[in-house]
């Protein structure tokens, strides 16, 4: 079957959602993954955006923003970011979510704040310094990372993105591993998977360090290790991820009816 890497990534992420979950995700591939899951195998999943659009499905293709007409036309209700993030997410009600990452480390900590030159990272110098490259910031991802029962991280698998330690923690994963999340009193459970354009990483149940769980038919264990900036451990049961079925591709493309995310 003919499909793109973006489509495989979205389907693999969508498979991580279950029926009946309350879920939050942003625009782009994360929204495609979420609404694919709802259409394909989780019809009773309830979705909302960080802007407060609740209980809707895209109309006429995927939206360009979290509140435009394509995502708000058939919403159950409208509220705001304070209610969405400060009430639903922060209270631990959200079952699953998706966030993105410009940089990510072996404990699932995400950086979307900035990229610093070597030796000038805030955690090395002990104070915030101006980054070499300023990124968009955390948006609602920090609240999701702290409060959601679990969440998925989506990222392009490149060595410069998958670092031993992120330059700055915009959205916490498992901090330094182990039970660090409990030490900080986070209500949420932490990232359950990192889905990339090459495969899926999952956290060790004890150390919380992410290891390679599975890879796509067009990638390999060797390629994933080569594109990871830490000594990536590989599951003894590492496996190939099943390719999309005809039904999955049909449902995915029904959500992305304009084909805006089908290209790569």
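-> sequence recovered:
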């Amino acid at each position: 079957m003919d499909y793109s890497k973006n489509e495989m990534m979205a389907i693999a992420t969508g498979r991580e959602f279950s029926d009946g979950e309350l879920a939050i995700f942003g625009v782009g591939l994360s929204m495609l993954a979420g609404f694919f899951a709802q259409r394909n195998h989780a019809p009773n999943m309830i979705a909302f955006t960080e802007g407060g659009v609740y209980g809707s499905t895209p109309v006429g293709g995927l939206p360009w923003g979290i509140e435009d007409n394509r995502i708000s036309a058939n919403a159950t209700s409208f509220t705001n970011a304070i209610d969405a993030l400060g009430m639903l997410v922060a209270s631990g009600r959200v079952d699953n979510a998706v966030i993105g990452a410009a940089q990510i480390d072996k404990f699932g900590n995400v950086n979307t704040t900035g990229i610093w030159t070597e030796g000038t990272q805030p955690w090395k110098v002990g104070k915030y310094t101006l980054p070499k490259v300023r990124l968009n910031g955390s948006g609602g991802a920090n609240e999701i990372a702290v409060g959601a029962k679990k969440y998925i991280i989506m990222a392009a698998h490149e060595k410069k993105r998958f670092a031993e330690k992120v330059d700055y923690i915009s959205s916490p994963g498992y901090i330094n591993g182990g039970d660090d999340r409990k030490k900080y009193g986070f209500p949420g459970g932490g990232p359950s998977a990192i889905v990339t354009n090459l495969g899926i990483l999952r956290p060790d149940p004890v150390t919380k360090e992410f290891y390679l769980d599975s890879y796509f038919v067009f990638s390999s264990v060797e390629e994933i290790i080569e594109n990871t900036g830490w000594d990536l451990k590989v599951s003894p049961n590492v496996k190939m991820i099943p390719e999309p079925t005809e039904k999955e591709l049909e449902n995915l493309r029904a959500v992305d009816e304009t084909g805006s995310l089908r290209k790569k």
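The longest helix spans residues 29-40.
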